[in-house]
Amino acid sequence: MVLSIIVHGGAKTISEDKAKANIEGCKAAAEAGWSILTGGGNAKDAVEAAIRVLEDNPTFNASIGATLDTEGEVFLDAAMMEGDSYGWGGVAAVQKVRHPISVARKVMGNKSMLLVSEGAEKFAAEHGDEMCAPSELITDEQRQEWEEQGAVLDRPATVGCVALDDSGLLVAGTSTGGLANQPPGRVGDSALVGSGLYADNNLGGCSTTGDGESIIPAVLAKTAIDFLMGGRHPNEAAQMAIDTLKSKVKGEAGCILLDSQGRVGWAYNSQDMAVAYMNEIMEEIAVFTRK
Question: Which of 59, 67, 158, 174 is catalytic?
Fold first, then answer.
């Protein structure tokens, strides 16, 4: 077993002028999580720290820079799961929360459940999470794209992270602003255990990205984890999971995986996918926008 972390900035199309921002954003997230792991911190801290970096970056679709729904509003979903106790926590359809991944972690630490909308926002406020006005999450670029209703070449997408610490704990987290022009009240896969994320210390951890309506029926995260059985390499397991999704439904998706040894894998069927990872064997963080 080796300390490992992997992050993703979404399975999507990355335009040439946004490639650098995706690379730098994912690298910064991996660095934030890696510094915690190498400093003796646990995987929960590392995943939360990495995803908070991505939530702060408008290059991605999570918190600031999230996509707008048909009514020009932003709603966020996030979840976290740990692989020892199978504890999990999720929030969905929140507007007034600055870092939904942090709220999801607090939910997980309180009692495994999915909290939505005003109930989730009330929980966040009562537990000292950073609150905000919904308008603070909307960038000028996102507002302009929504008003113009044109095709967006660089589609922002869901973010996620999986980490393995020195105690053998695997933790997965996923955070999203949903789909552009989604109907009010729509919730995708990101906050759903088994679809948007999964963690099992005996096998591995997974975070997914892509079209939730395709990921959910394929139970993509759990499917990818199951393919790790028998010692299969995470790269092969990830590709098998994406192939399974493609054989059942239409839609773009991607997934990142760590197994219980700390080996890394990822796969996608979109044009691009922003990914960064690091482990004890490597000398520096590896970062990609295409495999």
Answer: 158
Q: Report yes or no on whether pTM surpasses 0.85.
A: yes
The span from the CA of 88 to the CA of 109, in Å, is: 8
Report residue 120: phi and psi, to 5°: -70, -40
Q: Which bin fits 216, alpha (ψ -120 to 50), beta or left (φ > 0)?
A: alpha
Classify residue 232 as exposed, middle or buried by CB count within 10 Å of its CB (0-12, 13-18, 19+). Answer: middle
139 belongs to the catalytic site: no
Per-residue pLDDT of the chain (291 residues; tens, 9 = 90+): 899 999 999 999 999 999 999 999 999 999 999 999 999 999 999 999 999 999 999 999 999 989 999 999 999 999 999 999 999 999 999 999 999 999 999 999 999 999 999 999 999 999 999 999 999 999 998 888 888 876 555 666 899 999 999 999 999 999 999 998 999 999 999 999 999 999 999 999 999 999 999 999 999 999 999 999 999 999 999 999 999 999 999 999 999 999 999 999 999 999 999 999 999 999 999 999 998
Q: Are 114 and 91 in contact (CB under 8 A)?
A: yes
Tokens encoding 88: 């999990």
